Fold these 3 entries.
Entry 1:
Amino acid sequence: MIAYKAFNEKLQATMGKGVFQFEPGKTYEESECKCAHNGFHCAENPLCTLNYYDGTGTRFFVVKAEGDINQDGYGTRISCTRLTLIKEIDLIQLATLACMYMQKYPEREPESRYVLEKTGKCDRKDSFIIVRGKSPEAAGVKGSFLFLLKEARRTKEIEGVYPVFVDGEEVKENIWYRIRGGKICEKRN
């Protein structure tokens, strides 16, 4: 199965036995897996990786989880006996993949401080916020990314994902944006 994993800047992750060094493209194997005890950990939902590594220098990878797979119900955390690092992605790519995940599984809880209901503001450059709802609204500082996820009228199904980069010119800093007629526009009072 395809999953996601975060690492420190040296491409290391903490395991029950200590720190484990990874390399892109390599496959790693363990004899057993049980979440929070052993095996290689990753997550089905890209945003779950931010529960473990969320600081400067964090590196994110798309991974392939194989062999025995154990899930313990803590978010979408997975432990597996075989893990391959497929591709490195940046934070905004991670957010984009998270939006796709939420579109595929609209009823699942996102379990992330990056996902807000109805309104939200991103106050960090090179970061993002995801706002979902019937009429989502978001604002951000210059250099931030806003993702507006429009839900269907009567369900939590996501009808559209609207990514916005706050460049300071076309999309202004600290101005609230919403979706109208299938397009992003400034919120007017």
Entry 2:
Amino acid sequence: MKKEPEKELHQPLVEAMERYLQEGVYPLHTPGHKGGRGMAEPLRSLLGDAALKMDVSLMAELDDIHAPSGCIAAAQQAAAELYGSDAAFLAVNGTTGAIHAMLMTALRPGDKVLVPRNSHRSVAGGLILVDAVPVYAAPPYLPEWGLQGQLTPDQAAQAFGRHPDLKAVVLTSPNYFGMAADVRAIADIAHAHGAVLLVDEAHGPHLGFHGGLPPSALQCGADMAAQSTHKLLGAMTQCSLLHVRGERIDLRHAADVMSLLTTTSPNYLLMGSLDAARAQLAADGRGMMSRALAAADRLRESLTGLAGLRVLWEADVAGRAGVTALDRTKVTLHLDRTDVTGIELGGRLREAGLAVELVDPRHVLFLVTYADAGAEWPAVCGRIRGVLEALPAWQGAAAAVPAAAAPALPLTEAVLPLRQVFYGTTEPVPLDRAAGRICGETVSFYPPGIPVVLPGERFTEPIIAWCKARKAAGLPVSGPADTTLATVRVLREPRDGAR
């Protein structure tokens, strides 16, 4: 029997905000713009009166994210019930904040944790906060696609063989390109050794709602999962959820950690959008995902067969390099048989009024959601194809692949703990002269935000060459103080005679 729409779309936090707005209360409290009255133009007009009036502070009737007992508690409980967790937390500092909280909840200072080397830079930040010890593993590489795969169950088992005192495993599943790990098998391995599985599921808040998508991390036995509700669902940018299972994780401690890391002035528009996105998914999750898959398949099919261009399909990666399935809403183009780089193609698409999710020397990634299932989507697909067909120098045979794109990310040596270097004294040196020095900052290229070198790791000539090639290709640098990469910060070494 179909539920009534009013019941399906119950949004306790949004409804409380709406009631407060309708009461017309004069704000003798923060924020200082007083419901938009003092907001500068043109932003005031762009946002509108209603949105600015709902930019409110911690009113009693709007609950307290640090000790929720009303509408926020109801919104979090509804999210937990929808996803099958024992507790869900609204995360208004993005999935970065949720990942920090996940690591600080599950680990204690000095604990060892298995971390794939292609994890997002936020994992390194969480390790610094908790002072945990990473044990790195390099996921298999797919050279013909120029992409990293996933940590395999065998790698996880071998890591526990070498480090039986591991307390946790971190996975990123699905990864930026939609490739899902064997979460269930790795969860079983971790649990058999008394460890927990923590999943960076930033790109998977929509999983588990349609059989054409990989299962969710929680469905596969994860103990905690951090999701970017804003990336593929209807929440506003910066909005995420942290899910916790209580069998192996202390739910009270998780709440304490979230409170520690969350602002005491959370934005209600952000939190309300999380509540609204959850309600939307609860009401029509399967339908939303059906529309997303249909839109993505239409784009993928329209681009398949263009000379010199390869489109990533599930059959290309499933069962290889630790990958069990592909989230088809991520449409990846590989340009290995063209004279055009992903950066150049991204620029041409932008000139045509089309902005893409990710570019690198050999790839362009389109992110497709249920919101792309509108009447304009066929024309958008046609415009994308038109840009590709107009590109010069398509080649039928494989072109020379730039050195920056062909090899896997070079591995480096971890010399000192992350936290020790983070609080150490650093100095800038030219990148060309950094070989042998201990890195004092995170160097990554964004997106996808995977660190090339982390604090405490040693610069090597291959790492330096890899960084220079990526920078020369036009990829934006994220993390270092000098984003030109002319210099990098390294740990200051004792001078002769210094003690």
Entry 3:
Amino acid sequence: MDIGTVIKERRALLGISQQDLADFSGVGISTIKDLERGVGNPSMKTLKKILDVVGLEMVLQVKQTVK
């Protein structure tokens, strides 16, 4: 599942609109719409603002390669 789908489902669970999410996070509505459609490529800073509003956190992992 991609991050846009996760955000959309979480937003729906919380009962907030895309406009509400944009207002609460300080991110443009077009960024929210693009992200949920899977065509957005937000910066880490922008993504963190959105995730903070919906109560999610970002965890980064570095893949290990086998030699």
